[in-house]
Amino acid sequence: MAFEWKDCAVFGAVPEDKISEELFTKTRVFDRISYLYNNSIMSDIKLTCGDSGPGEVFFAHKYILAASSPVFYFYDFNISSIHLSDVSHVTLAGFLSFLYRDECPTDVEEAFKVLRLAMEYQISSFTDACKDYLQPKVTPERAFKWLETLIESKAEALADVCWTHIDSHPSEFFSLEHFLKIKKTTLDALLDRETLCCDEMTIFKAVMKWLDYQCGLNDVRPTIENKRKILGDLIYKIRFVVMEQGEFIKNVGAELLTDVEVIAIVKFMNGLEVPDLKWNTTMLKRQVSCGYRLLNARLWFGIATILGSIIGGVACLNNR
What is the top-level taxon of the source organism (predicted)? Predict the structure, then answer.
């Protein structure tokens, strides 16, 4: 069912007898609950939103809220209203529309905002109900923008779609401000991925940009020491050992590693045993390369073309 903002009209001005008459004609429980959406009849709590004081007022029902969300269930309901300061009236309308009507917002950007609010109130059913609609709408641009929110919201199915886009377009992701603002835990997950479609030097340079930005956020100088302190053990997830030796010495050497670490990695690159090397030498190049994906896509395109020609030829023979 499609959600439209015009459906959010407040029913307070409707005569009580007319409301009762309309309500009692509903033959299904779903229709009766839906009718109570933003309806003053038997409303025992109001929801307001906005930064500048209580703006739009939404009529709600404690029972519906508590039955939908464990957060609301344990809420102190000895109050007559709840104010959500960081939520727009459109987002709150979409949120309540889902609770009362099982409706997913038709506007994709708004749907992600409603998702964030739904996850904040632990309404996991929103993701299950709306993922089939939202998944095809996750473009690379939206994936870059919403990855962090989806991870925090534990919307795993949608986050996986975002990761797939990032796997295919990592350089584009690295060039955006969205990347610079990701949390360390998200960077950790990124460095763990085996399917990033780029070389390790590109990943290293992206991490350096992220570190420069983080130093600025923390108001510290972008020294090697400060960068290492911010990055912590994630340094060992950058696969320096798969880089070209000359490129490694030229671009990495003094940027993030100590002289001892550089020497140890160069020794490993030259086939020497380095027993104390902290980098994982069993996980080398990421498993799926861009070339493999391109070759795979071309292969299937070629097979489809050949099959199309064969089917077309058979059809022509049958028509003779």
Answer: Eukaryota
